[in-house]
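Response to reviewer comment R2.3. The reviewers asked that we include at least one raw input/output pair. We reproduce the pair for AAA ATPase-like protein here without editing.
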Amino acid sequence: MADQYEFASLLTAFRREAGLTQRQLAESSQLSERALRDLERGRVHRPRQSTLNLLADALGLDDARERRFKAAAVTPRRAAECTASRPGNGLVGRRAELDALIGLLRSGEERLISVIGMAGAGKSRLLREVATAFERDPEWSVVRYPVDAPAGAVGRVPAERPGTPGGVPAAARPAALGPEGGPDEGHHALLVVDKAEEAARDYDFAAMLRRAPRLRVIAAERMPAVRSGRYLFPLAPLRVPDAADEVVPCDVTRVESVRLFLDAAKRAGGPDRPFPDDLAAVVELCAELDGLPGALAAAAAWSPVYTPRRMLALLRRDPGALLESPGGDGGLWNSMVEAVLALHGDDRAALARLATTGGCWSIDAGAALLDHDAHRFARLVHCLLSLGFVRPCRRGGNRFSVLNTVRGALTAAA
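Raw output as returned:
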């Protein structure tokens, strides 16, 4: 069984086989002699992937020996720790965003917040977690609209007319907001709005906030209308693994997108632990699905009938196939196509042209492709980035790429 001592012995054997001293190997691999000594003495439990790559190159290992060398760096102990570290059904990869929103709302620094992002980014789930956090505080009253709202708490009514107290029609005013549309004396109130486009027909948020200084509003929107006074909080996709991360399974399963997929697959009835070949396919799936939590969960629902590699092949043939539920509901895929169609025609045409590059592009390169002024193009990229249609590339400075799922949605919308 592999452990750090087996790796240390293998490293020493390969170094001697290559006829190198520790100093020579350290110089050719760009490591310090001390670091190399620690590796050969078994003091390092978890060599970095970059270190393994440098050593393999300096030792001149062929493919088979390199695989053996890198496999020896992965210990069963670390794999067990990794499996135990995964939560069963928690909010994966959004702790920083959750803490930031809670802080903004509690401080009153921002009283009207719109969480924006691509369909499947996890806006609704994040808002539910925000609501739950404030419901634990006796000094706050929380109203959810419309998802999870208590029966009868919020009614569907005609559009609001000026002059209605608090900006909320009486039929739509939850008791927690009081007669003037604000919280009861001595309390703070939080209105949590999923699908803000629908809620705008029932609520005049600006009027409510003017009348109720203790009120906060947080809303999820896919395509925010131009309104003053609201703070836009873009929700980006989760991080996806680097290709190099595949060598160390424990590292890969700590990446948020992979952890979310594996947890969702297990809940859907898939295997408790994927085989190594399946894990490599999961890494590719997470990248193909852009780390979008909703897309990952939708794909994971197919785990009882498809292996990850079969899912990957299906996804590459038909980008929307796995985003329809096994029951035939195409909700998420339809939402993605609708999001693309909701873009202004010129912006959608520009996005489609950028999608044809198939890779990363800089502001200057993208502006040249579209024959735009660079600053005008930067403004477009800022908008597309906030809405979740493009994402930064992890390498190469200020470079961006169109999401894979968006490429598929553009084709479906054409």
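DSSP finds 20 helices and eight strands in the chain. Residues 85-90+239-329 form one domain. Further pairs are available on request from the corresponding author.
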